[in-house]
Amino acid sequence: MHMLSIIFPIRDEEENIENIINLFEKTKIPFDYEIIFVNDFSQDSSLEIIKKYSIENKSIKYLNNKNKGIGGAINLGIEESKGNYCCVMMADLSDDIGDMTKYYKTITENNLDAVFGSRFIKGSSCIDYPLKKLILNRLFNTFVKILYFSKYNDFTNAFKIYKKESLKSTMPLVSESFNIFLEIPLKVIGRNLKYEIIPISWQNRKSGYTKFKIQELGSKYLFTLIYCIIEKILIKK
To answer: How far apart are CA 124 and CA 120, in angstroms?
Structure first.
């Protein structure tokens, strides 16, 4: 029996947690799944809210991050997941739960290692993306696409699905911050694992605040890119 583990890294998302749970409860999802909230040292009431819902619903569980940072939260979520497949979703409700279902259908029916969604191909939609962030996103992703001779153009987006066995073959995951979302797909591609690209929908958060800081992450993304290129070269030798 296949099952999907949906990993939500959480830091100060008290305004969104109940909305996430309500969304899953009212959506008919045609497969078994578990929701894993990984609390990343929240200072608000996020943990208390998650604890309450985990008692009421056995498909919801929570973990406390051991090493502060979204990279550590993702690593812990993968390690503790019970599913055959893992999907990372952001707690800002920017990702479409219908796309998650498409991910699962695509990866299971085609025996893939991963499915990468893109917000910037035909059939996709991207609503209310901040202009400065959009320009930097497109420049960096185009640069990576050229370096990797790839058709993919949305490496840095967190929302993707992986076969857990394949995901574990990319470890260790060394990124401590949002650059983990670049590291994983680059390692999938560098290992010649099987993946497909599909269009997805995205909309900017309506509640809470983003933890993504452009000025703090540039050097981390560059480090991850260099690291993954070197690893790719070494794997081929």
So the answer is: 6
Q: What are the pLDDT digits (tens) for 146-170?
A: 999 999 999 999 999 999 999 999 9
Identify the three-state secondary structure at position 7: strand
pLDDT digits (tens, 9 = 90+) for 177-221: 999 999 999 999 999 999 999 999 999 987 766 655 565 568 899
**Who contacts 45 (Cβ-Cβ below 8 Å, separation ≥6)?**
14
Phi and psi torsions of 35, nearest 5°: -105, 125
Least Cα distance to 34 among 103, 81, 93 occurs for 81
Paired with 125 in beta bridges are 201
36: tokens are 């894993």
φ/ψ (deg, to 5) at 88? -95, 130
CATH 3.90.550.10 fits 3-236, yes or no: yes
| Tokens matching residue 92 | 């800002």
Mean pLDDT over residues 91-104, rounded?
A: 96
Q: Determine contact, residues 83/167, Cβ cutoff 8 Å.
A: no
Q: CA-to-CA distance for 221 and 176, rounded, in angstroms? A: 11
What lies within 8 Å, CB to CB, of 37 at 6+ separation is 8, 10, 17, 50, 54, 60, 61, 62, 63, 91
Q: What 3-state DSSP class applies to 170?
A: coil
Q: Determine the Cα–Cα distance for residues 140 and 199; give it in Å rounded to an integer.
A: 19
